Amino acid sequence: MVSQDPCINCFCHFCGTPLRFQISRVGETVNCFNCAMETVLFIPGLEAPYPEERYRVEVREIQWQTSDLGLRYLTGIVTSKTPRILAWVRIEFILYNEQGLPVGSTSECQTDLAGYESWKFRTPISQNDAVKASCPLISCEYGRIVGCRIPPVVRPPSPVKAPAAH
Question: Could you say which DSSP state residue 50 is in?
Fold first, then answer.
């Protein structure tokens, strides 16, 4: 009798869709059926199949910006700290209102981030009541990149308009 390789589920690192695979395929890179982005297969709850040095990045200079048309963005720089090309890197922020309640999220993705290359991201903010953002949630085909050392980002106060003279 031939024993069969048992199957397990993990989730796409980009969109979160469940991926069913044979356990012997742990560590393989596959394209998600839902979003077509690459994901490395893993067993949830166990250590990642690759060391974190393989997909380390640094985030800096995060700030709120407003365009000339009044559109708001979170901007900053993501720098690869590895010689490897990352198929994709996604940065996401949870947005909060003045009461500290989540009001949405914003994200952006860069494909083919070369080793030691920097990427200037610009995530749009469409929620008018968003005044604060979480520390960045960063993921790539290898999984969630942990070790966020950046504090939450608070929007600078809007300038106070002087009352009109009568």
Answer: S
β pairing state of 18-22 and 7-11: antiparallel
d(CA 138, CA 58): 10
CATH class of 52-148: mainly beta
Longest Cα separation, the chain: 94
8 A C-beta contact, residue 11 and residue 139: no
Cβ atoms 131, 155 nearer than 8 A? yes
Extents of the domains making up the chain: 7-40, 52-148
Tell me the pLDDT tens digit for each residue of 57-97: 999 999 999 999 989 999 999 999 999 899 999 999 999 99
Q: Any idea of the CA torsion for 25, 31, 35, 39, to the nearest 10 degrees?
A: 50
